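A reminder from the course coordinator: this example appears on the midterm review sheet, so study it carefully.

Given structure:
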């Protein structure tokens, strides 16, 4: 009798093992059920987005948050994040009483864009939640931007590092205290390169270029193409800014910032 009971328990435990494995594979939120954020459906759970610590100065905030669902009195699509329920909240400050000191933060991805050609960037931009207070701090063009850390691969200079930075143009007053429409960084605002690459190409902080022009100048020497290290949404070091960003677009992928993480949405 003891032998039969022991065998029955052993068989029950053995049969339960594959059942547990099946449940884990289909339970929402499990590693097998979730996508990996790159849209290819390979089933591995990866989220390579976060604050790039190397590029952070002071004590800024770049936080995946719920909302914002304002400002008060605003209704319709502009009263909520354009995708899902959340966004990337950004807070940077200017600290008074010091030799000018402003905070800086980059929230980005140091893995998934590595080695991709800068010339392959065709669609870039985001939605932003701008406030009247931010305009009072630094004007209507006081907005976060997009930064790509790159290897410029310029034959005229041995540097292997530069930041390719988008500076948005001022938003219309109709986009204040609410979510903006999509801002197309390939058509809106200007771009520049930091360091020696900016000097060689002429697309520097003083003489900024269009998106098409800066890409052309990077590849004008006919050598190896410029390649990407990282991609990020960033703010600083200039004016105080407190707001949010959502729907970051890089080529065919749209990155939806949610409190639970960054979701990748494929776009046409």
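Designed residues:
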């Amino acid at each position: 009798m003891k032998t039969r009971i022991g065998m029955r328990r052993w068989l029950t435990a053995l049969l339960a093992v594959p059942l547990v494995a099946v449940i884990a594979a289909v339970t929402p939120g499990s590693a097998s059920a979730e996508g990996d954020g790159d849209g290819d459906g390979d089933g591995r759970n990866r989220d390579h987005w976060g604050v790039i610590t190397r590029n952070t100065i002071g004590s800024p905030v770049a936080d995946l948050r719920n909302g914002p669902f304002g400002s008060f009195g605003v209704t319709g699509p502009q009263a909520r994040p354009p995708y899902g329920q959340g966004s990337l909240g950004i807070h940077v400050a200017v600290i008074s009483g010091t030799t000018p000191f402003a905070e800086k933060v980059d929230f980005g991805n140091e893995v998934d864009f590595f080695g991709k050609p800068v010339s392959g960037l065709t669609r870039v931009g985001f939605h932003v939640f701008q406030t009247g207070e931010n305009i009072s701090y630094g004007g209507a063009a006081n907005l976060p931007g997009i930064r790509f850390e790159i290897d410029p691969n310029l034959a005229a200079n041995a540097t292997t590092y530069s930041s390719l930075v988008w500076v948005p143009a001022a938003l219309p007053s109709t986009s204040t205290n609410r979510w903006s429409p999509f801002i197309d960084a390939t058509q809106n605002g200007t771009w520049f390169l930091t360091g020696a690459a900016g000097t060689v190409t002429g697309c520097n902080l003083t003489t900024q270029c269009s998106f098409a022009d800066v890409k052309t100048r990077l590849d004008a020497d006919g050598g190896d193409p410029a390649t990407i290290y990282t991609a990020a949404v960033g703010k600083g070091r200039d004016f105080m800014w407190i707001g949010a960003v959502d729907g970051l677009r890089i080529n065919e992928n749209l990155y939806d910032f949610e409190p639970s993480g960054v979701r990748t949405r494929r776009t046409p």
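The helical segments are 2-26, 132-138, 195-201, 211-218. DSSP finds four helices and 16 strands in the chain.
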